[in-house]
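Entry 12.
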Amino acid sequence: MDSNLALLLIPIAYLIGSISFAVVVSKCMRLPDPHTYGSGNPGATNVLRTGNKLAAVLTLIGDALKGYIAVMLARVLLGDESLTSTMGSWVLSGVVIAVFLGHLFPIFHGFKGGKGVATACGILFGINLILGVATLSTWIIVAMFMRYSSLAALAAAVFGPIYFVFLFGFQPIGVGLLAVCLLLIWRHRSNIQNLMNGTESRIGSKKKTLVSGDKGTS
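Predicted 3D structure (tokens):
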């Protein structure tokens, strides 16, 4: 693939990542803008605060799919170059970072994006099925035993790049995953503070269902 055309995959990935499914699903289902209640985070967890489980599930699936689609699109168009050539590997690494940045800072939604857990999961599955399963399993295990969604996300973020190195060694794509890991941790800085203070909410804890105009407390 021509190098100039290959580089176009990076801004395309950013645009794909900029589609905030929390906002799209909420508009389609006539729910309040997720920026206006709860944590203000346009993600599945915050959408769930409306009491609409279907909307939350659709948000989760959509955010994961955009990460998966962006990576798979690049892999298909780049062909074997995505894993075998230096240029292709760096382009794929750029795609990984771009689609994640699109979710965090979406151009279509005033650069106010989510924390990126679902999108990161989709990226990992797009790179390799085993890598995705291993990282998702880490999230599930930590979530089941510790009952903190944020802690599970942080653990998965740390172990994702480690699993990649064990599976494939040191490759340019690993740089992209490391960047995603650091960005995800940065986006969870308030959750880290809450965990340290013992104020982070646990999975399954009852929360007030929010309605339009209710800003929430978290």
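Annotation: Residues 211-218 have pLDDT under 50 and may be disordered. The chain has one domain: 3-197.
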